[in-house]
Amino acid sequence: xxxxxxxxxxxxxxxxxxxxxxxxxxxxxxxxxxxxxxxxxxxxxxxxxxxxxxxxxxxxxxxxxxxxxxxxxxxxxxxxxxxxxxxxxxxxxxxxxxxxxxxxxxxxxxxxxxxxxxxxxxxxxxxxxxxxxxxxxxxxxxxxxxxxxxxxxxxxxxxxxxxxxxxxxxxxxxxxxxxxxxxxxxxxxxxxxxxxxxxxxxxxxxxxxxxxxxxxxxxxxxxxxxxx
Length: 228
Known about the structure:
Layout: H1 4-22, H2 27-30, H3 41-59, H4 68-78, H5 83-102, E1 110-112, E2 118-120, H6 124-138, H7 150-164, E3 173-176, E4 181-184, E5 193-196, H8 199-206, E6 216-218
Parallel strand pairs: 3-5
Antiparallel strand pairs: 1-2, 3-4, 5-6
């Protein structure tokens, strides 16, 4: 069972960690390159703010974004702002998301996200949690995949493994950190490849944050994963 109330509290905590860390930057630091190609830290912070508002739209039954072009334009518009404006926007948009999450609602209902993707409303807080945690890492300000909460790492690994399940371009693959195991890729009676690594390295590879060089592949080459 998905506990959306607990996930909302995890989002709140993760947001406070990010804001506390980002507050140590200065205006010049906001314009520095993030770990995401083509994006400054300002782009990442702007995206986080606009994503919070987009998920409010989802919870309230509106389209997540007016269009992909409008989403991109909003991020480009907001990316150059000084640090104080960035932090205020992330904080205020996060409060709007928490307010929407606290409203009485049918959390079993199906909601629509980007590109026709649907999910249960109860999973939206976890999706926001993933945005905050992974983009905190993307800022490149000392928060690493190894610093992510253990519960989050396990759940996001499970989520991403499921996302690639049935993908014809990914061979049948078993993932393991030595304690837990996941299956992903094309359906088959048995996996073709077993990929082993630390929880952080497995998640980083699945999430496109690491190239998988630290992972061990047995039975074949490390699979090439399609972009998320």
